[in-house]
UniProtKB/TrEMBL annotation:
<feature type="transmembrane region" description="Helical">
    <location>
        <begin position="271"/>
        <end position="288"/>
    </location>
</feature>
<protein>
    <submittedName>
        <fullName>4Fe-4S binding protein</fullName>
    </submittedName>
</protein>
<feature type="transmembrane region" description="Helical">
    <location>
        <begin position="446"/>
        <end position="468"/>
    </location>
</feature>
<feature type="transmembrane region" description="Helical">
    <location>
        <begin position="120"/>
        <end position="137"/>
    </location>
</feature>
<keyword id="KW-1003">Cell membrane</keyword>
<keyword id="KW-0812">Transmembrane</keyword>
<dbReference type="InterPro" id="IPR052378">
    <property type="entry name" value="NosR_regulator"/>
</dbReference>
<keyword id="KW-1133">Transmembrane helix</keyword>
<dbReference type="Pfam" id="PF12801">
    <property type="entry name" value="Fer4_5"/>
</dbReference>
<feature type="domain" description="4Fe-4S ferredoxin-type">
    <location>
        <begin position="74"/>
        <end position="113"/>
    </location>
</feature>
<feature type="domain" description="4Fe-4S ferredoxin-type">
    <location>
        <begin position="157"/>
        <end position="193"/>
    </location>
</feature>
<keyword id="KW-0472">Membrane</keyword>
<feature type="transmembrane region" description="Helical">
    <location>
        <begin position="76"/>
        <end position="99"/>
    </location>
</feature>
<feature type="transmembrane region" description="Helical">
    <location>
        <begin position="41"/>
        <end position="64"/>
    </location>
</feature>
<feature type="transmembrane region" description="Helical">
    <location>
        <begin position="340"/>
        <end position="365"/>
    </location>
</feature>
<feature type="transmembrane region" description="Helical">
    <location>
        <begin position="149"/>
        <end position="169"/>
    </location>
</feature>
<feature type="transmembrane region" description="Helical">
    <location>
        <begin position="416"/>
        <end position="434"/>
    </location>
</feature>
Length: 469
């Protein structure tokens, strides 16, 4: 028994040393990281800009013989799902080491005007608002399908990152901290990562005067001494070993949500989880496959024709307002665009209400009403909400591979396992949160059951999309 526990301790110590060493390695290789970032910038710019100036791919185009199809596969099939999965594994290492936008924003900030950050930039609603607007706009202009749309949205975001970097802060990533449309999602997913930069405050405060005068440039403006959450940290490693108080450390994947989020969860996070990731994202992934969308559109078209109003069925817009690719027989009319927005809004409202009511019920059955408990329980839904976005994006991967003739019969059961795994993880988190708050077992069970009932609604929506439609 003693031999067993001492060998477990030595394995744990080895792992801790290895991780702390990895953090120090990053800290000591910032020049190499810069070079890697410039490599990613060049690759990103090539895949984003060149296809936008090529003719649209024909029916003989494949991933391996057409740059546009290859870029589409890399961006939406590998890059984005891969980045989201990396958040679950390594926290925001992507942001600190590889992200081209972050690198360009910081580069501009090193040479920019260094102005103070205005209050409007610091508005805490930006991650939610920017995510919703980008997601909906992306659907309006078919960002997954067309390179010009991808250039407009991803390139627009990059220009914004450079501009904000040029204007505000010195050697900082103001864009990434406050305005990036996906920083909220990355921040949520990184809470589940099994590693983070841990801060030993006692060691920090006890550090000798010489060390106290040293500075570390934390580009995303994290208040390092009081850092508890992995959300804002870009895992760049620059502060690793600082004042002998900071080290890359392993942690339990549920630790932050169960313990730290008890006091740090807030309403903008809840909105992003419930309305953004569960509601808007599901509506956006679902509308183009939905028979309800077709019924709604046909019903509206018949009604308009009966009223003698033909113009909504004929009016089209430039591609940067609403999809308009006549050569591909892919044009959204004013009516299509309106129904698209109505469909996403209705789906969002329905799913958000179902999930919010179940959370509210869970709060109520486990004690007196507390908004803080509502927001804390909402954080328990991060695996389910984030898992849904990964599932939705990976649909693009599999669609492209299937179009290129790959046999993907294994995908359907894998999806089911993934969906059920994400759902179970969320329920386990909700249970752990309630137990951590000393809610009795019976009431915790009722609370978990209420949230399970609420999550069945979006789960069924995924089942409709992947298995029934
Ligand atoms: S706290 Fe800041 S400096 Fe330290 S690893 Fe995170 S992003 Fe880098």
């Amino acid at each position: 028994m003693t031999v067993c526990s001492s060998s477990r301790d030595s394995t744990r110590n080895r792992k801790a040393r290895w991780l702390a060493g990895a953090g120090i390695w990053l800290q000591e290789h910032q020049i190499l990281i810069r070079r890697v970032q410039w490599g990613v910038v060049i690759f990103y710019a090539l895949l984003l800009i060149v296809p936008a100036f090529l003719p649209l791919p024909g029916i003989a185009a494949h991933i391996w013989n057409d740059l546009t199809t290859f870029a589409q596969f890399v961006f939406w099939g590998i890059w984005w799902p891969g980045v989201l999965i990396s958040m679950l594994l390594f926290g925001r290492l992507w942001c600190g080491v590889f992200c081209p936008e972050g690198a360009l924003s910081e580069f501009a900030s090193e040479r920019g005007r260094g102005l103070a950050i205005p209050r409007w930039v610091k508005w805490p609603g930006w991650p939610f608002t920017a995510f919703v607007l980008t997601t909906v706009y992306g659907q309006m202009i078919s960002v997954y399908q067309y390179p010009k749309a991808a250039l407009l949205i991803l390139g627009g975001s990059t220009v914004g990152a450079i501009l904000i970097g040029y204007l505000y802060g010195r050697n900082k990533r103001v864009w990434c901290r406050y305005l990036c449309p996906v920083s909220g999602v990355f921040g949520l997913l990184s809470k589940l990562a099994p590693m983070h930069y841990g801060v030993d405050r006692a060691a920090w405060d006890a550090s000798p005067p010489g060390q106290k005068r040293q500075m570390v440039n934390c580009a995303p403006l994290v208040p390092i001494r009081t850092m508890e959450s992995a959300s804002p940290c870009h895992m760049c490693g620059r502060c690793s070993g600082f004042r002998n108080a900071i080290a890359l450390q392993a942690r339990r994947p549920n630790e932050e949500i169960v313990e730290v989020s008890a006091h740090s969860a807030h309403r903008w996070d809840s909105l992003l989880i419930i309305v953004g990731l569960i509601g808007v994202a599901l509506g956006a992934f679902q509308w183009s496959s939905s028979p309800w969308f077709i019924d709604l559109k046909q019903g509206a078209a018949f009604w308009l024709v009966e009223q003698g109003m033909i113009w909504p069925l004929e009016t089209t817009f430039p591609w940067w307002i609403l999809t308009d690719y006549a050569e591909k027989n892919d044009v959204l009319t004013l009516l299509d665009g309106t129904i698209l927005l109505v469909y996403i809004a209705a789906t969002t409202l329905f799913l958000s209400l179902a999930v919010s009511l179940s959370l509210a019920l869970a709060v109520r059955v486990t004690g007196a009403w507390q908004w803080q408990r509502f927001h804390h329980l909402a954080q328990g839904l991060i695996p389910f909400a984030g898992g849904g976005v990964i599932l939705g994006l990976s649909a693009q991967t599999f669609t492209l591979l299937r179009a290129d003739g790959f046999d993907l019969n294994w995908v359907s059961p894998l999806r089911m396992v993934f969906l059920l795994g994400a759902l179970s993880w969320s329920l386990w988190l909700v249970w752990s949160i309630l137990r951590q708050q000393a809610v009795p077992v019976g009431r915790s069970l009722i609370g978990v059951t209420a949230i399970f009932a609420g999550l069945l609604v979006p789960t069924y929506s995924w089942v409709l999309l992947f298995w029934l439609w």
